[in-house]
Amino acid sequence: MPDDLIRVLIADDHLVVRKGLRDFLETYTDIQVVADAENGIQTVELAREYAPDVILMDLQMPKMDGIEAIEQIMVFSPATSIIVLTSYTEDEYLFSAMRAGARGYLLKNVEPEDLVNAIRAAIRGQATLHPSVAARLVQGIEHPGDDSLTNLTERELDVLRLIARGKSNKEISEELVVAAGTVKSHVSNILSKLHLAHRTQAALYALKRRLVPLEDSKDTEGRKIV
Description:
This protein is α/β, with parallel strands linked by helices and 226 residues long. It has two domains: 6-139, 3-Layer(aba) Sandwich (Rossmann fold), CATH 3.40.50.2300; 143-225, Arc Repressor Mutant, subunit A. Helices cover 48% and strands 14% of the residues. The chain contains ten helices and seven strands. The chain has helices at residues 15-25, 40-50, 66-76, 91-100, 112-123, 131-140, 154-164, 169-176, 180-194, 199-208, and strands at residues 6-11, 31-37, 54-57, 81-86, 104-107, 128-129, 224-225. A five-stranded parallel β-sheet has the order 2-1-3-4-5, with helices on both faces. A two-stranded antiparallel sheet has the order 6-7. Helix 7 packs across helix 9 and helix 8 packs across helix 9.
């Protein structure tokens, strides 16, 4: 099995959706669907058993909803990238999912290729937001205190701006001409100083503080990546 294979867990209460996603994703040689779950409790159990790299998480499932499943998985596997894949556009679902620890939020009408790109982006430490929810998410973040950024060094601010532009640690390392380990330390310091859980929240924080324009968080094909 290739070391760079992306291991994916699919969580959705509809068999047709799970089968369709599995059949589609397994046409890509760099993605392996390790399991699929039909409810929230099973999702948590399979996440613990298989330790997938990425979970595609529906929100409305029996026995345990997606939000609670995200919260539980983040306790024992915070490195797992969870991408919400749902039909719900309401703010209450969007904000709850991101606060729980989701790294991305896509609607089920997403273009198939964009879904694959979102999975690959998650492995690089990036997150993808569906265009229809990206601006609302930034607008809905609580504005941090005026002195929040004063805790960051100039280099940490540089790293934060690049995170908000969708850059991976490797890309930040190359752009700033510093060691990858140094970038990792900067990211850790940023999250700690700003009291954030992960880099997706850091990117949204930077966008809210207008450290970079919202349009700068798009990738080369116009998708919202933060």
